[in-house]
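Working notes for the structural subgroup meeting. M.R. asked for a predicted model of this chain before we commit to crystallization trials. I am recording the input and output together here so anyone reviewing the notebook later can reproduce the run.

Input as submitted:
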Amino acid sequence: MDLKDFVAAFGDVAEHSPWVAEDAFRKAPFADREAVIAAFETAMNAAPADRKIALVRAHPDLAGKAALAGEVAEDSRREQAGAGLNTLSREEFERFTQLNTRYKTRFGFPFIFAVKGANKHMILAAFEDRVSNSSEDELQTALTQVARISRFRLEDRISKD
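Returned structure, recorded in token form:
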């Protein structure tokens, strides 16, 4: 693949941040799927601080209004639905909304959690635990979660062979 084809195939892996795929492409050729995944993680970790924050901010709120209205990337919509976030009770939705607001006020970016394989109870527990983190720790945790999300998405798109 050339850069254009690579970005066309993987530019949406990091939510609304095609620059991650562009930077990852610089590590091509890739020996296997793990090499592609590592290149994405390296691209994210090597980015300047302002780009890292923008990457985290590009993600939607979990169970937020945009997600419920379908105004998020297709991968995000599918992942959140898989975790049951599209079928929250009124009380659960209100709890997510409160936590999203509290978290964003504290950190300046949305709560990021790789929801694949998780359920709403696990996500709420992580929300509760992480809202008291330091800003530095939470930014690193958010970036780690973005890397996990990218891993899951790349594993879904690239065969292991």
